[in-house]
Amino acid sequence: MHQFMNKEVFIVNLIMENIELISSHEKLEYIGLLLREVRRQYGYTQEEVAEQVKSHRNSVSRIERGENFTMKLFLDIAQLYDFPISELFSDLE
Fold first, then answer.
1. Residue 69, Cα to own-chain centre: how many angstroms?
2. So what's the pLDDT on residue 2?
């Protein structure tokens, strides 16, 4: 697995600093954008991610767009990326 990169840490911090200012839908969009950026940093395609987490490319695409997705898919993708999800949710109320 990859080490979490400085750019992603910056993005997570930026989101967490502003998360209380945005709506629930926008939060999902932010998380999706973050996951897309992390995927690109790792050099994965959506198809490769889907294969690794035993899902479909369309499901990966939906989560990256902040659309309807399951928590299981989110957690599987976060684990694939070694993504510190606790940082995303620690300040959510």
1. 11
2. 44
Estimate the crossing angle of helix 71-80 against helix 24-42, to 10 degrees. 30
Handedness of CA 50, 55, 58, 59 (dihedral sign): negative
Both structure tokens of 88:
């995303």
85 vs 88: CA distance, rounded Å: 5
Q: How confident is the model at residue 84 (pLDDT cuts 50, 70, 90)?
A: confident
* 22-27 contact pairs (CB < 8 A, 24+): 25/66, 26/66, 27/92
pLDDT tens digits along 16-35: 666 555 556 677 888 888 88
One-letter identity of residue 58: N
What is each CA distance from 47 to 24, 32, 63, 84, in whole angstroms? 27, 16, 13, 22
Task: Please report the domains of the chain, with CATH numbers, ordered by start residue.
Answer: 6-85 (1.10.260.40)
